[in-house]
Specification:
184 residues; mainly alpha
Length: 184
């Protein structure tokens, strides 16, 4: 698969939240409205490429030469936990600790660890873009649904889960055959 195909696949078909169900808890807890959701999601979107490259470097430069591939999950978890030492809020107000402990970030790092450095970076960036896209669309839909009438039993989490499920089906419409035709 070409680099463009990889980017399109990880942005739409293998979307970390809607296709692989990684990071669903923070996703469902996003603030209502697209603007606050962008601010919160940017932290996770920025952490994913960094975690993917870090995972590649850890695997290639430390674990494989020492024959410790079986400790990849533990080592990567510790390295990502060290990122919590970075100041909690930057100038843009990104919530970095929430992003680092997000299981989607760890999942992307593990998914991309066996690839080359360029593909790992592409997977991380595409997964981050997919997370950001899904979060903004979801927040906008939730804001709109809050203004509409819904039965009492469907308000809140049930309607959010139903919306996420329908979004997942919409993202899966970009199937691999279409994306491979576009991406080569």
């Amino acid at each position: 698969m070409t680099m463009l195909g990889t980017v399109l696949t990880f942005t739409f078909v293998n979307n970390v939240v809607l296709g692989q169900l990684l990071g669903v808890c923070p996703f469902l807890g996003l603030p209502r409205g697209p603007r606050p959701a962008v601010r919160v999601s940017l932290g996770a979107a920025a952490a994913m490429p960094a975690a993917a490259v870090l995972s590649w470097a850890l695997r290639r430069l430390v674990l494989v030469p020492l024959g410790l591939e079986s400790l990849e999950l533990v080592a990567l978890g510790l390295v990502l936990a060290l990122l919590l030492l970075v100041p909690a809020r930057g100038r843009a107000g990104l919530l970095l600790p929430q992003a680092v402990v997000n299981c989607a970030v760890l999942g992307v790092a593990l998914l991309s660890a066996g690839s080359g450095i360029a593909r790992s970076l592409a997977i991380g960036a595409a997964a981050g873009a997919g997370y950001l896209l899904a979060a903004v669309v979801f927040a906008g839909l939730r804001e709109r649904l809050d203004r509409e009438w819904a039965p009492r039993a469907m308000r809140g989490l049930p309607l959010s889960l139903l919306t996420a499920g329908l979004m997942s089906l919409a993202f899966l419409a970009f199937d691999r055959a279409l994306l491979s035709a576009l991406g080569g």
